[in-house]
Amino acid sequence: MLARSASNTRGFSALETLFVLGIIGVVAAIAVPLSGNALGYYRLSGDARSVSNALSVTKMRAAATFGRARIYVDLAAKSYRVETQKDASSPWVPDSGYNRLNSQNSFSYGVVGSAPSNTQTTIGQASPCLDASSHPIGNTACIIFNSRGIPIDSSGSPTGSYALYLTDGTAVYGATLSATGMTRLWRTQPTSTPSWILQ
Question: Structural domains in the chain?
Answer without folding.
Answer: 15-198 (3.55.40.10)
